[in-house]
């Protein structure tokens, strides 16, 4: 099958119709599992606010377990997390008027200042399922009308090895560890990026963007042989993963006959450099989680999430996972994480990706990019992602109301920036 | 009468229709008296710009008296206050092209550069009535089509004592002083808050928000007995004030049989703390002025204004008034203001209110809060306020045109924040 | 002819219809020559991004010559200039995926990672004609549908002397030099102003705004006799320049019988001050370039451009031109530029103009100013400009799509300003 014709076809009007749901999902996909915070960011007794797909969520840890509730008091709409107040172990209280909710059910169980109010027991706020795995707090960001069973976290994580060894062989590296492995240790960082979450996703597995990484210190230090590009040769290059009860996504079959590295560009007189082969493979799953196998080094895997906050911000998660059967293994991984992986891979290498995603935002923010982009052969996996995401997402988040990031401008912004002083709440005194 | 049923009823559709004018008043109420600046902020010969209800206003003091004019030159629309120019004692001149207006009438009396222009004498800018009382410059923010007499300032200030002693007895504290008392001294501060003015108003007299103050240093230092809440028992708890020629508003009849302090919440296992009784009472008047009697201490009253600037900013005024018959009394009040009231009450205590108001803004900014809020028993006074404000306001400010705060975003904001340098008007030089 | 009646008539409905195209040109006029950067800002091998009339443009200098292309990759829309990559002397490469364009034609000549992609050679990005004159890189900002010949740069520059001596005599100063003179040297600065470009234009030649300059240090130091205003007496005061193949604009015939200086304003009791006569003359040309003859000193001319970036930002160019036949003349001009002209004229004097233009922005930003402004006698030249600009512009820039400055607000602005820290891309680490 001729790839070029595939691509041409892939982004035509018929294809656009196929990924129309994705094009509409400015605020993300609901009814999926997302990482919300590292476990260490939600200490016992705390109440921490996050926003995912436009849904404000407060995380509260009580007796070791993390609970998630809508971070918007039903009374006057303030965030419970704005000034955390926890009067009992089984509740969270709004700091403003004392509306108190069961952290288990979200039910309004009391009001500090009005213990007899008849509203008590008749209403409440939504709660969200939580799973804490290997130091990461995952939340199932549920729409209000979701009535099905909650799918297991594993359905929203990358496929696992060695279970999939036969289907997706990896002759050049050992079995990829998984977040869900018993002795797995996950270490990482997250930070806010300033682009739509979809632009972030599409950067992650993009086979055509190796160019932005060729000058990275880690590439130079390791003398990795980074090709100019990786060219899909057959329609098996990108393989769909759509098992009924498993994660939905696709895998790029690098280092097989389906792909060919591009080593020379004669017209531009450039050649791939580096002499040490660097084997790796990317796959991508709903709701937006990337797996890079054999990365940055052997026996380590890099996961990335691009979690929608608003329509123009996302939380960028980079997590490295390694199996560490002994305490010494754990310490060794932590040491290498701190002194090598974090500065040179998660930052040095991936900061270029952060830059690239934000650089696309102007083109797509007003819709122009979605209409005018001109995709090429190398973008076959992007079209694949858009279609698979359109087919298997469990719900499109609508533009929310009444939460942070909906109203974009504010009267005071320029004044604050430009004024002689920049203080917040500056006083003017009388005589 | 059962309060609970009253509240339920209070925020139903019929009630919402009754306070629809208030719900529309995003930019405030026109044709009312508002504090614009402290007297000391408008020294002789100065021209100071403020914005109230979206109306730009320039205050000019000449021969001791303060005049107020529209702060927008009729020629090219710049603010007269942007670069004050006063060539004669009875005029203010636009610094740009010299359009010169009578400070008394607003008439265009000359143009510096074109003394013979036939436009002179045929046009002008609006002026606004000014009253300077006890160190505060009040402006009557008039709509262009207001043709009635200007109501006295007293109609837009709280009711006075001892005149109202019989009607609203206060057995636990001495007569409340008034801004208008002959020997009254007013001391205070004002600052900008980042929320709609109505959210600020509704925090002021809110009987249910004592919770946010319980940890304040002043409460702890004084060991004040602050209840968990104050529960209305009868429909006399909140009494309307709607005398024909007087201020319009309502009073919360705390420390009467109409209210009951909530001292214990058994479900949450919390009790009111503090051992020293603290008596006070709140009342609220058009266009948005709060009176807290017997506060922060005996013989002192606290006034608060929430003056609309735009639809998402307001000027928060806190003013303490005390009768000081002798110069020594004045000095004593000033000393206590500086060393106790200002740091521990106006800031320590009320900073929590500022935080709370701004915390509501996201919920209400796009209209969601007005539709989705869920009020309870404790909010009876809020519904009362919305209705009385709807009934007695003298005009709803429309969204203005051509003034600061209407166009919310600007092209350069992110660039300025994120750019390598943040200077305004940075040069790029040629060779 | 009575000037007053002329002005009255000039801004009536009929006149507004005549300058309707100007009123629509929020984003500027296309198909004109604009200064983009000083030559020294585009060194050999660099790729520098600018935005003009909403069109992102990348300037690349190769083998001494500057080329201009659309600064938006056709693939995913990023700016080529965001991270310049130039692999060959005749191309520019997108840093993201390696799309490579001929700098001469804009044709897609290769893709680094996909040298065989069939899209190559079939598409490309627009290019723009460039002229580099006397240290300034000019770009002809072409609309996509422009098919006519490219007019010479001289048609978008001020008229020249001595060619126009007879038509526009200047008995009080020597022949004005021109940017296009063989031995001319141009020195200047440019910086971003925060207003619509038309407000900036209208300040440049405005005969009524001398008032803002009367206190400038240069005026005081030189003891220049600056009148209060300059009053047009006849309809020859402002003369149209509309030769078929020449620049289109007008000239203010100061220091002729058509104008009278206003020296006294009796009503306001002010007199012009200064004792040294200061002769000068302003003229203005499409697409928005001002010439101030005999300014700041003899044998020097000041050019100013107000180049639209977005609808609320413009690049303000100030350039002084002098004929310098010898190397010593050049050094002398550079010395005086650095130590006198730049600090006291381009800054000290013209900073007042920058302030004035931005002060108009609020009034005009939402359209209010265009409807409500009240022009007077002194504004005859402004009406003239609007009409001539409407008649002779070569195309109105539409609101663009997919570029910087179109989407005005962003979710994160307030958070960044107000947050406890203001860092960009702050990390949150796991355990």
Automatic annotation (TrEMBL), chains A, B, C:
Listed Pfam families: Aromatic_hydrox (PF11723), Rieske (PF00355)
Database matches in Gene3D superfamilies: 2.20.25.10, 2.20.25.680, Naphthalene 1,2-dioxygenase Alpha Subunit, Chain A, domain 1
Rieske domain: residues covered: 33-139
Molecular function terms from GO: 2 iron, 2 sulfur cluster binding; metal ion binding; oxidoreductase activity
Cellular location(s): Membrane
Top-rank taxon: Bacteria
A GO cellular-component term linked to this record: membrane
Alphabetized UniProt keyword annotations: 2Fe-2S, Iron, Iron-sulfur, Membrane, Metal-binding, Oxidoreductase, Transmembrane, Transmembrane helix
Chief place of localization: membrane
Listed name of the protein: Rieske 2Fe-2S domain-containing protein
Biological source species: Zoogloea dura
């Amino acid at each position: 099958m001729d790839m070029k014709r595939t691509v041409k076809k892939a982004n035509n009007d018929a294809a656009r119709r196929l990924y129309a749901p994705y094009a509409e999902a400015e605020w993300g996909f609901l009814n999926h599992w997302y990482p919300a915070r590292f476990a260490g960011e939600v200490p016992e007794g705390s109440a921490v606010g996050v926003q995912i797909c436009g849904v404000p969520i407060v995380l509260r840890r009580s007796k070791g377990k993390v609970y998630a509730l809508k971070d918007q008091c039903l009374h006057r709409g303030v965030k419970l997390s704005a000034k955390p107040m926890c009067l009992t172990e089984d509740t969270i209280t709004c700091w403003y008027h004392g509306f108190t909710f069961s952290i288990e059910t979200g039910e309004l169980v009391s009001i500090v200042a009005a213990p007899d109010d008849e509203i008590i027991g008749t209403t409440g706020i939504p709660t969200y399922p939580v799973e804490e795995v290997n130091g990461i707090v995952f939340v199932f960001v549920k729409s209000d009308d979701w009535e099905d069973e909650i799918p297991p976290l594993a359905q929203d994580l990358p496929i696992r090895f060695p279970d999939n060894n036969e289907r997706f062989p990896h002759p050049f590296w050992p079995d990829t560890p998984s977040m869900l492995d018993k002795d797995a240790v996950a270490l990482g960082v997250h930070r806010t990026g300033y682009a739509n979450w979809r632009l972030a996703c599409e950067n992650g597995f993009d086979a055509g963007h190796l160019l932005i990484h060729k000058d990275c210190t880690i590439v130079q230090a390791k003398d990795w042989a980074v090709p100019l590009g990786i060219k899909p040769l057959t329609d098996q290059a990108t393989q769909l993963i759509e098992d009924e009860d498993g994660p939905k996504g696709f895998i790029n079959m690098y280092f097989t006959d389906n792909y060919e590295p591009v080593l020379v560009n004669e017209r531009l007189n450039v050649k791939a450099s580096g002499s040490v082969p660097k084997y790796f493979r990317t796959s991508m799953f709903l709701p937006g989680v990337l797996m890079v196998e054999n990365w940055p080094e052997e026996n380590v895997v890099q996961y990335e999430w691009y979690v929608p906050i608003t329509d123009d911000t996302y939380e960028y998660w980079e997590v490295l996972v390694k199996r560490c059967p002994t305490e010494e293994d754990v310490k060794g991984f932590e040491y290498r994480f701190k002194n090598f992986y974090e500065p040179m891979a998660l930052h040095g290498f991936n900061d270029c990706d952060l830059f690239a995603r934000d650089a696309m935002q102007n083109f797509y923010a007003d819709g122009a990019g979605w209409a005018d982009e001109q995709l090429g052969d190398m973008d076959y996996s992007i079209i694949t992602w858009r279609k698979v995401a359109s087919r298997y997402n469990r719900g499109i988040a609508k533009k929310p109301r009444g939460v942070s990031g909906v109203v974009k401008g504010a009267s005071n912004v320029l004044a604050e920036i430009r004024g002689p002083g920049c203080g917040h709440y500056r006083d003017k005194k009388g005589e």
